[in-house]
Amino acid sequence: MPFSPAYGKGIASGISPPTLTNVNMNSDSLNLPHNSFNQSSQAGILQSSLAKIAADLQALLQVEQVNVCQLQPDNQVHVVAEAAHGSSLPSLLFSSFPLDYFAPHSSDLLFQSQIGAMVNAESNTLFQIPRSVSDPESYRVVETMKRIPDGARVLQHLTEMRANLYVVVPIFHHEEPWGLLTAYRPDFSLLATRQLEVVQTLASQLSVAIDRDS
Predict the structure, then answer these.
(1) How far, in Å, CA of 206 to CA of 34, rounded?
(2) In a structure prediction context, what are the per-residue pLDDT tens digits for the chain, which is 214 residues long?
(3) Which residues pair with 165 in a beta bridge?
(4) Which residues contact 51 (CB under 8 A, 6 or more apart)?
(5) pTM value?
């Protein structure tokens, strides 16, 4: 893998769902010794922080599902947190997938350039989301999905999810790749600039929570 993911800072589950939102995190996903009371308590704090951020994003974007995915050493991602409204999309919680199922352009571009992406599965179109949404090319169309590396894999994933809107942005911890923040919706519409700002802000808040509460 060309980048060096920040492994070792884990996430978890078991939070009571807020109204209209199901938030699930798994304490067994934490890379912490279970015989340490202090570390277990700290893990619970992290659980609460990440659950709230995922639920906030799901509500603010009005999407069906938001997932927090942690990079694994074997070029996989593990879904460690999920916030969902209703049950129209399949749950991915606790599942592991190849990274290229989630990264619609190469993982190098996603992490090294700190660029997120939005996919219209129905039209097979990839939109590039720069880190700064004030960029005049915030919604620049990169390419049709079938003509880019790993595009077919992502489309397969979205077909299985029954989702036409897919948003993915990288999560960093101490400037190292840590994971992905993803959102799904059955119908497609371009996110407004304000919504993009929310995605970027909450991705940054995840980084802060991982550092503060781990």
Answers:
(1) 23
(2) 444 455 445 543 333 322 223 344 343 443 433 333 355 667 778 777 877 899 999 999 999 999 999 899 888 998 888 999 877 899 998 899 999 888 876 566 677 666 788 889 988 888 877 666 665 455 555 566 767 767 788 889 999 999 999 999 999 988 888 999 999 999 998 888 888 888 988 998 999 988 887 7
(3) 120, 185
(4) 13, 15, 23, 25, 81, 83
(5) 0.78
